[in-house]
Amino acid sequence: MALFRSIATIGSWTMGSRVLGFVRDILIASMLGAGQVTDAFFVALQLPNIFRRLFAEGAFNSAFIPILTGELNDHGRLKAREFAGQVLGFMLLLLIIISVLVEIYMPEVISLIAGGFSENPETFSLAVDCARLTFPYLFFVSIAAMFSGILNTFERFVAAAAAPLILNVFLILALMGVEMGWFIKPGQTLSWAVLIAGFGQLGWLSIACLRAGLLPRMPRLTLSPKVRRLFILMLPGILGAGVYQINILVGVRLATELPEGSVSFLYFADRVSQLPLGVVGAAIGVALLPLLTRQLKSGDTEAACLSQNRAIEYSLILTLPAMAALIVLPTPIITVLFQLGEFGGDATNATAAALVAFAIGMPAYVLIKALAPGFFAREDTSTPVKIAIFACVLNVFLAITLMSFLEHVGIALAAAISAWINALSLAFLLYRRGMLRPDKRLFFRAAGSCLASIAMAIVLWKISTWLFYWLSSGSYQGIIALAFLVIFGVFVYALLLQILGVMRWNEMCSMLSKKRS
Q1: In this structure, are residues 44 and 191 in contact, taking their beta carbons and an 8 Å threshold?
Q2: Buried/exposed 177-206: b ≥16 CB within 10 Å, e otherwise
Q3: CB neighbour list of residue 351: distance below 8 Å, 6 or more residues apart
Q4: What are 92-139's pLDDT values in tens digits?
Q5: pTM of the predicted model as reported, rounded to 2 decimal places
Q6: What's the CA gap between 334 and 352, in Å, rounded?
Q7: For position 118, what pLDDT does the model report?
Q8: How much is the pLDDT for 515?
Q9: Less crowded by CB within 10 Å, the N or C end of the chain?
């Protein structure tokens, strides 16, 4: 079906970006370890990402894509581009104001989000310097996110999905420059690379929009009814995204109160969990919202329900085995990927423990991406916000409680638990309103993928004990052993899906090979 093919297209490019991101993180871990420089840089990198997710990718696109789709369906491409141009003018004004204010008050901002650094003036000063370089990234990547939304609305997914590759390429080049002695300040060098990458991403997507005839023209600032409608719909979304970003800020803020390296432990563990999570979650969220919007705008509610069910189905089929594998193989994975150079055994154990906690919430994170479009496509952005606020309060309470005896692992576990509460609440409300009608295929495939994941995890755990010597090393032997486990795990899981009748190979091949209707 079209949804599966869109997920596959977006997911393949996202996978490429995640793999490059892994190369980047391996280099950071081996060259810098988990300490002062990495803690400061990761805080600086988190800052523009928080605002980006707050104003651009989350709240903005959730409101922007349905209205843009309606303009396209009702009035054609010209009016859709005109609306996009009006929105672009206001976005530029807002981003300039935010950027100037944050740059001026950067020390106060860092004190707020990483107050624990104040006890170490050197780390605090480094974090401020790095953040002043990384924050302008917000300006470029937010406009790039808008252009991505335009391209996705017109089902041109490749350029938008490939754009994150640019950030990882520039960071890897910066790390190579540090290694060769061209740059002597690694934290500031990486921060410059982030800024330059933002400009590159915007340029890439601007060219893609221009070639597709979709580049918006920026008119005089005009607060048209459609633009007002966008901001009205965005307000709950900003609150919802803000709630999620509060969770991140709370995690970073609490981690800075823990022993040095805690911010890095959480970052590296999150990066590993983000490989399958980001690929599947981003692909499903990006592909589903335009599809649901078109189906609901045309009055085809039955097709919308089917699309929702298939999105949930694919979410579980693709994330349950990843969760199971990360839970049974955390230490070998972290050892092989990161235990090089400055990243030692203690850091490996601390990061592996956080990885297990993050993995527990993995299916929930993706289910949120699959369920929230059911509200957004109906221009209901307030309900997910109310649920997110409750989940946020729960996360803060759990993080403060659990970190008292689990340290950084408690922060990761709190995030996982609150994500499950969020996902289950979204599903319950969609079901109660008649917007979610699970079919027999969904129940059958969910149960089957769960059984197959458990069986696969047992097999992988047993094989890992035979490969213990190789997996306990960060050498090429460990890489070979880990790659074997990944490939063999995929094979075992696919075989079990076939044996259980959950999904057959010829079915997946036919969905991938069908031409777009």
Answers
A1: yes
A2: ebeeeebeebbbbbbbbbbbbbbbbbebbe
A3: 34, 265, 268, 269, 334, 338
A4: 888 888 888 888 888 887 877 776 676 777 778 888 888 888 888 888
A5: 0.67
A6: 6
A7: 67
A8: 39
A9: C
